Amino acid sequence: MLKIAMAQMEVVPGHPDVNTATILRFIEEARAKGADVVIFPEMAVPGYFLGDTWEQSAFLRDCESYGRDIIAASKDITVMFGNVAIDWQKKNNDGRVRKYNAFFIARDGELVQPDNMPYPYTIKTLMPNYREFDDTRHFFSLQKLARELGTTPSKLLSPVTLKIRGQRYRAGCLLCEDGWSDDYEFAPFELLEKEHLDFYVNISASPYTLGKNDKRNRVFGRQAREAGVPLFYVNCIGLQNNGKTVYTFDGSSTAYNEKGDVVRTLPEYEEALTVLPLAEMKDMAAEPESEEKDIAHIYRALHYGIRRFLENIHMKKIVIGISGGIDSAVAAALYAKVVGPENLLLVNMPSVFNSATTKGLSQQLANNLGCQYMIIPIQESVDHTIKQLEETPMVNLGTGSETHLKVSSFVAENIQARDRSARVLAGAAAAFGGGFTCNANKAETTVGYSTLYGDQSGFLAALADLWKHQVYALAHYMNDAVYGREVVPQGIIDIVPSAELSSAQNVDEGKGDPIKYPYHDYLFRSFVERWQKATPEDVLEWYKAGTVEKNLGCEEGLVQKYFPTAADFISDLERWWNLFTGMAIAKRIQAPPILAVSRRAYGFDHREAQNGAYYTRRYRELKAELLAE
């Protein structure tokens, strides 16, 4: 009876030596458990998101060398693993050496060649070139190779025949995107389906995205059911990045039987190995569908992502500026779970505009966490900065004339934010021996509701892919499920969100941020996360049809509540669109790395150009029509 092991390993990007050691350890474990086959993830040797490290020939040679170590370790066991494959005699379209994203199979120290492939490995067919993926920049696809050889992908894509203990098994080998072919002109799974296979294997390096696992179970479950054979999906865990955007890989490796049922799922964010007897899978009971709320998955992604990010940069201590608001409170609760309260320093930095209410809530939060706490008032230093700017002469060296700067109330607000971050938090972090965080949420990040070199500063923006309503949901979840007690004070959850930078933002008078989160969260989301991104033209079409809330997914009645007239609605829309496509882009470019959880995160996942706001001809027509009514 064939026994197949799924090895869910942590892949450390750019470190083939570390990854190979993990692979060799898992091979021994699989062999000890009686497995005939052990499956590892896509790009298990080098990692996946490596930037332009793929252009280093020395690195590629190392990956080949470590691959040979894995092949040599395959005595009496079939090892399936992902690695980069190099044809040193050929070039990619960019003139650099030819690289393939490849699926290797080794047995008894030798590679097992797919039936019709020109190389002793399977080449990835479908190259994702959207969101965070940039495969075509570095890798040559099977489709390109087929054209180069004067044939078709269907002629090259073929099963691998395995000879194990006197039996022959035919396996269909797919690499990640090859199983997600709905929007491609070519479907590798369907081609292999004609080959009378015994099972499929999909090796993946698939980043976590909220809701992706449910969709994958539907898609891969259907594939297994229609083909009538089991399918093994093996994903990695770990943390990989494209510079500006940091991605968690959750694993969740899954076995589907020939009925399409999920019969085994490996845990999120944990290394694990499981062995399944192929012949018994059809009689295995389907695992129950998870009833966990989305926020539980988000919490695990954030906790794991923060922990691994800190480990990668060797940071053990954290400083957070807390204001008595929800974002900094949730950040504090998150980091306390990761580094421990003894390694967490919360700093409250009140000015004359901070109320006794928020100062008291900050103290209560710190007490609840049992962490380090400081109160450093900033009003004296802010006043000193304003005085220096206004009283120091500004000399025109061409004419010798003198003038003085005038600090407006708006500039004074920015000075407060910069004093807190650039002076207090940066200094406190250096003295404490750690780093300080950026606590921005996604709504603020969308429209640049932050201060450059102020509250937008920090080493990581862990909450910047969460909308404000998700931040509140995370506060409730951590109180209820993570801590089992009220850590984020209810007063912080209840109070109006406010930057408290002026008397116009007095929380005790119910005055807060200009962003109306119950509506703007969803408006801004339509700009970013819709696959067909919304523009002001789309929004005005919805307004005219009376379907804004339906299309945005927000609560009914909010448009009339916030915007009694068409002029009010249009003024608000243009205010935020101008910021989203204007100054906010410059701020996002300078923002810290963002930890991704959504279907579209800022950074490398959402590529932007600083072109300024644009309104289509149809938008201008709709605007004129609505304002004339």
Write a compact overview of the structure shown:
The chain has 629 residues and is of the alpha/beta class. It has 22 helices and 22 strands. Helix 1 (16-32) runs parallel beside helix 2, helix 8 packs across helix 9 (326-339) and helix 8 (294-312) crosses helix 14 (468-482).
Mind explaining what this structure looks like?
- This protein is α/β, with parallel strands linked by helices.
- It has 22 helices and 22 strands.
- The strands form 5 sheets. Strands 1, 2, 3, 4, 5, 6 and 15 form a 7-stranded mixed beta sheet that branches. Strands 7-8-9-10-13-14 form a 6-stranded mixed beta sheet. The protein has a 4-stranded parallel beta sheet with strand order 18-17-16-21, with helices on both faces.
- Helix 8 (294-312) crosses helix 9 and helix 9 (326-339) crosses helix 14 (468-482).
- The longest helix has 24 residues, at 409-432.
SSE blueprint:
Layout: E1 3-8, H1 16-32, E2 37-39, H2 57-72, E3 78-91, E4 97-107, E5 110-111, E6 122-123, H3 135-138, H4 142-148, H5 153-156, E7 160-164, E8 167-175, H6 188-193, E9 199-203, H7 212-227, E10 231-234, E11 237-241, E12 245-250, E13 254-256, E14 262-265, E15 272-277, H8 294-312, E16 318-321, H9 326-339, E17 344-348, H10 356-369, E18 372-375, H11 379-391, E19 394-395, E20 402-403, H12 409-432, E21 435-436, H13 442-447, H14 468-482, H15 490-494, H16 517-528, H17 536-545, H18 548-552, H19 558-562, H20 566-580, H21 583-589, E22 594-596, H22 617-628
Parallel strand pairs: 1-2, 2-3, 8-9, 9-10, 12-22, 16-17, 16-21, 17-18
Antiparallel strand pairs: 1-15, 3-4, 4-5, 4-6, 7-8, 10-13, 11-12, 13-14, 19-20
